[in-house]
Amino acid sequence: MDIHNFLLFAFASLMLNITPGNDMMYVASRSTGQGTRAGIISALGIMAGCLVHITAAVAGLSAILVRSATAFDVIKYIGAAYLIYLGIKSLLKKATPLKLQDKMEPVSYGKIFWQGVITNVLNPKVALFFLAFLPPFINIKAAHPQWQILFLGVWFDCSGTVVNILVAILFGRMGDWLVRSQRFARIQEKITGIILIGLGIKVAFTSKK
Question: Within a 10 A sphere around the Cβ of 58, how many other Cβ atoms?
């Protein structure tokens, strides 16, 4: 894997991680309802759950690569198309206030952690995401591409955890304003959409090794 591909992946990961999803909404809900520490612990639980999907992605993509490099290339282009799809979806999405989970009763930190794990592990979209997103950045001609898959997966997980911890801190201190702010949601969606479309096009034209 060359440094250009890695930097491209790191940037794409950051853009995807700052896009609101189920995991971020869970962290924000916990942080708003029970404080910053609860939000951070839920972020760590999500990080642990994501490791399950990373392990499955390493095994699955490695198996596909062993069977057919062509099939792996097809998945790479699907991944590029997926980035473009997410970008267009972000641009077309109507900005609305963030919807957090209601009636989250305060529970122990241990339970919050494991709820974070379960929230991530039981989300099938996460598994599909890894299978679609990682291939465009893998050099299949390398001696051990499975280590690239593992490294990129762990990087994505760590990047997402940093973002979720920042979300926990922000929502712990100013959650009410962020929930109501349509301007915040609109700016975030538009910037993310433009960048993801650009990344998708870039990957589509540079994914051949």
Answer: 22
